[in-house]
């Protein structure tokens, strides 16, 4: 997993107009930030989450993104040592996944995090575009 343009922040992908435009659309579709208008915009609504790719090369980023869009979630494993001084991922953390051309393509959330020995196993769940429907799921249960 890499930031193709460096870390999100003042000069990173999160401040790029393409990422901000994607965030404006994605947060509405994912139903994030639905506080009544009198509270004003929350930080969740105002600040795009970090933008990164699922891969170490542009081709790997595209392949991993395709798997995410097809399946609705992906599992990634990273060595605990790769976090050297950084916090481990937290369930519910949002992110914007970039494709191999650094274009924002998916809004995701961390769905699960497990430390298994010297590995951190993280499940990334697709929020937008809408995850594919699972076969056998009734239309009555679709909102759940």
Protein architecture, described:
By secondary structure, this protein is an alpha+beta fold. It has one domain: Sulfate adenylyltransferase. The protein is 22% helix and 26% strand. It has 3 helices and 5 strands. The protein has a 5-stranded mixed beta sheet with strand order 1-3-4-5-2. The chain starts with 16 loop residues before the first helix and ends in a 16-residue tail after the last strand. 24% of the residues are buried.
List the domain count as a whole number.
1
Please tell me how large the radius of gyration is. 16 Å
CATH topology heading: Sulfate adenylyltransferase
User: Unreliable segments (pLDDT under 50, ≥5 consecutive)?
Assistant: 2-11, 139-144
Provide the residue-averaged pLDDT.
Answer: 81
CATH superfamily: Sulfate adenylyltransferase
Described by strand count, sense and barrel closure, the largest sheet is: 5 strands, mixed
* CATH C-level category: Alpha Beta
User: What is the count of helical runs?
Assistant: 3
Helix content: 10-25%
Number of strands: 5
Q: What is the first-to-last residue Cα distance?
A: 30 Å
Coarse structural class: alpha+beta
**Strand order, largest beta sheet:** 1-3-4-5-2
Any guess at the CATH architecture?
A: Roll
Strand content: 25-35%
């Amino acid at each position: 997993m890499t930031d193709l343009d460096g870390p999100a922040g003042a000069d990173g992908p999160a401040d790029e107009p393409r990422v901000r435009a994607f965030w404006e659309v994605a947060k509405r579709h994912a139903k994030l930030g639905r506080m009544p208008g009198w509270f004003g915009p929350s930080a969740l609504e105002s600040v795009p989450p970090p933008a990164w790719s699922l891969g170490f090369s542009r081709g790997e980023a595209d392949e991993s993104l395709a798997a995410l869009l097809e399946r609705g979630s992906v599992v990634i494993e990273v060595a605990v040592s790769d976090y050297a001084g950084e916090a481990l991922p937290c369930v519910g953390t949002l992110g914007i996944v970039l494709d191999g051309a650094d274009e924002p393509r998916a809004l995701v959330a961390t769905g699960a995090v497990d430390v298994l020995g010297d590995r951190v196993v993280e499940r990334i769940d697709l929020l937008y575009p809408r995850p594919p429907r699972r076969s056998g799921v009734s239309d009555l249960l679709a909102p759940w």
